Amino acid sequence: MASVPSPIVMLSAIAVAMASITFFATRSEEPTERRVDQATVASAEPTTPAHEATPTATKKPEPRVNRGEVYVEVFNNSGIKGLAARTASRATQVGWQVVGEDNWYGAIPASTVYYPARLKAAGKQLALDLGLGRTALAVSPMKMDRLTVVLTADAAG
Question: Where is the region Disordered (predicted)?
């Protein structure tokens, strides 16, 4: 008579497999990242003396971010209990549409807002809103229709 493994053993084996896949998926790619803070944004804005006219034809409008239309998922990659929930609450308070929070398994060097290419402006805005200094293009297994925030211990301070 053959015995059937318990559901806990099966779930544990699946969890280990998923953690391994995530580890290998996130460690092989060098992230393209850029530090974003208020000083960087301010220094990037052109300054024009008051007596000079700025041509309107060459100035591109800044993309507007409607926070309520962008999905956000927040993940905790630290040992700090409740970090994802607190950060999700802060994001919701400023208007972002937080659709999930959970733990992240993998190696992330610092708290990061990951964005798909079409949501680049929104990703940078969310990083500013949350006081996070790192953004990067989203990678698999992240969902490509939303922003993904992965928090490390540096986000707690």
Answer: 29-63
